[in-house]
Each structure stands twice: as structure tokens, then as C-alpha cells.
Amino acid sequence: MRILITILAILAIYVAIPSAAVGRMCSCSAVSACLSFTRASSVFVGTIIAAGNRDEYGRINVRFDVSESLKGVTSELRTIQFYPDSCIVRDLKKGKKLLVYADQNGSVRACNPTREYSRSAAEVEAIREILAEPSAFTIRGRLELDPEISRSAIRIELSYGTSVHQLEIDKKDIFSVKVYKENSYTVRIIYPHQTDLSVRAYPEAFAPEIRSNAKENIATFPVQYAPSTCDDRKIEIRRSSE
């Protein structure tokens, strides 16, 4: 009886450790499909045809029949190694269809967004859009305005070479434009004197140059074309009244 109790206790500890790890992974912060796609070395839709036993480290090798290659997969069959701290590891059954994101080692680890295909329709569609427009690059930002300042008092210009385009500001104080050419772009935000202005911009730009003339302030910052960038990073542009 003492031996049986000891064995049961050891099994309980063995099961509890992966469960805790999976719980931590599944509470990881969500990221966009674009960012998940960019970070992964290979992305595909596939059906499990075989799942091996756990090795001494709790890892499982899973064989897939690939039905759609989205990135970095050239063969119809693919073996992926799932680590015990990956969220999906407890549900790897033959016949299950998954959207798989794998790293450069062909592995799925903690905080990996791999999941059932039936729950990934919007994500797959977003990736297909990325692939359909691989050279498209969005420059966008949000103005945080003093409530007393009218949107009509703010002008936003996008320039590259000798071309200059006016950008519209929507009702949520967001401006956005898609570009398709490799180039260096410049965004200029022109606003009245004695105005507190903050701008959150994407992608990351260099520190803005802020200058003034007799009528207004002009915040200028360059943006480098980078179609593979999906991070949302902040640019703070502030001009306080003196």
C-alpha cells in the first residue's frame, strides 16, 4: 500500500507540472497575426497523421500532412517538435487540423500561437492578405489633441522625393496611408502655436525635429520603408505652450 501511494504521488506531481506550464503559456499576451507570421520561421495548415510519445524532456514529435503552406514549408509532410510548455501540447490527436507556427528549429514552444484551424479562420485570412500584398507598408498614427483644438487646425503631409500628399484625419484622430515603393518617407505634422500635441505613430521613426515659424509649429520625422515590420511602437511628439 505504501508503494502504491508513493507511485500515485509521483504521477500527480508529473501531471501537475505540465498543467501549470500550459496555464502560464495560455495566459500569454495576444499578438497580431502579422507579428506572429513575421516571427515564425515556418507557418502552415496541416492535419496530424502521427504523434509520437513524450521524450525524457516531455517533448512530442508530431507528423503533419500539410494542406496549405503559408511560409517556409516546401514539402507535403512536416514533423514539428512540441515542447511541454506549449498550449496545444495536451490536445495533439491524430486527424486534428492545426494552424502551425514553428521556429527555426521546427519547434513549438511557450507563448506560440499554434492552435486548431477551426478557431483560426480570421487569422489565416489576415496572413493571406499579407501574402497578397507583400510589398505594402502602412504608415499610420493617432493624434492626441487638446479638446479645444479642431482637427481642421492640424495638417499632416507625407512626402517622398518631390511628391507631397495630404493625409486625412478620421473621427478617431487616426491618419493612415499605404505605400508600395521602397523609399524614405517623411511625415510632417503642422499645428498651431501654444498647442499640446502628442502623436503615437507606427512604425518607429527617428527623433522628430520640431521647428516653428511665425504662424505654426512643424513636427517632422522620417519613416523608413520596412514591409516586414509589424510591431506597434510609440513615437511621442510633444509641443507644450510656454
Record the SSE blueprint.
Elements: H1 2-26, H2 33-39, E1 42-51, E2 60-71, E3 77-82, E4 97-102, E5 107-108, E6 115-116, H3 121-132, E7 137-145, E8 155-160, E9 163-167, E10 174-179, E11 184-192, E12 197-202, E13 209-212, E14 216-224
Report on this structure:
The strands form 3 sheets. A 6-stranded mixed β-sheet has the order 5-3-2-1-4-6. The chain has a 5-stranded antiparallel β-sheet with strand order 9-8-11-14-13, with no helix packed on it. 21% of the residues are buried. The radius of gyration is 25 Å and the shape is elongated. Strand 2 (60-71) and strand 3 form a beta hairpin. It has 3 helices and 14 strands. By secondary structure, it is of the alpha+beta class.
Condensed summary:
By secondary structure, this protein is an alpha+beta fold.
Shape: elongated
Structural class call reads alpha+beta
* Total beta strands: 14
How do the SSEs run, as a string of H and E? HHEEEEEEHEEEEEEEE
Distance between the termini: 82 Å
Q: How are strands sequenced across the largest beta sheet?
A: 5-3-2-1-4-6
Largest beta sheet, briefly?
6 strands, mixed
Overall average pLDDT: 75
- Sheet-strand content, in percent, reads 35-45%
Compute the CA-based radius of gyration: 25 Å
What labels describe this entry?
5-stranded antiparallel β-sheet; alpha+beta; disordered C terminus; elongated; disordered N terminus; 242 residues
